[in-house]
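Running log. JK asked me to keep both predictions on one page so they can be read side by side. First protein, sequence followed by its tokens:
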Amino acid sequence: MTVSSLEERVLFSPNIPDAVNQLLQAAVAASHADPVRAETLFLQAQALDSQCLQAYFALYKFYFHYKRFADAENVVLAGLAEAAQQGGFPNNPQQLAATPNAWDLYASETTLFYLYTLKALAFIKLRQGNEIDAHHVLANLKTLDLKDLSGASVIMDLAAGVAA
């Protein structure tokens, strides 16, 4: 299936491989009408290029949309590990927060993906009813993302509302 730029439903990173983008576009197109086919296409995209962070993003968003929070969490954790490996930093938010000046998490698309995906992890934890773990992730994000480029403040506000 060929998808032209004008037909794309979702704009992923400009660096995404064409074959992965085509699979992700087809998966997005199938998401509402045929979630089983969509999941198969998302998984094929990820298998085609396990280093493509956008494939992790698309898959965990898909699982989250269908309230498959355990599946979404597993993909988030795998995406965090891949981003940390690509970025050459520890995949340990607590360790990163303990030495916030040692790593520039605004330096690249990979590091920003890490921050954004940590935010997703916090949101998933909240949706699972695991407020304590969500607050731990958010506390680390508050230190790691001082500029709030990930938008974690929105999840922090939700978490504060849940706690109240």
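And the second, directly underneath as requested:
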Amino acid sequence: MRLQDELALLIRQEQTLQFKRFDENTAWQLGSALHERAVGEGWPLVIDIRRFERPLFFAARPGITPDNGEWVRRKVNTVQRFLRSSYRLTYQLAIEQQDIQQRYHLDPADYASCGGGFPLIVQGAGVIGSVTVSGLPDRQDHQLIVDALCDLLGHERAALSLPAETPF
């Protein structure tokens, strides 16, 4: 798949994976599903779900490092700043052949254009927060979130899944 084709799929994921409402109970369901998957696979993972003004769910699995917490912080900043997935930003920058510092004059120590941060979008309200994971390769971090959102919102995973091979 070409960069532009995958970017179109990333945009379609965001247009499709939207909630009618999102509250603390929804955050718990989503966070628990991500955690159960990580436990089942034996993955070291940090999971962070938040409205931008406050945390709603946080879990850290055995094997994570302090770097994972920093990756989460940077991915959350990216989703909050751009109101899109951090992986979508990766593709947009790759197509422009720039990095986040060149294009937006942002410090990469505070922002990350890599997979693992996804906007929480409520229909009629827009982006209200983010779901973020760190611990796997960035494409897998992104797809893990998409799979969990598909399951929770009743969408077919296959229709919104990235191919296994990355164009990078």
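Observation for JK regarding the second prediction: The chain has one domain: 3-159.
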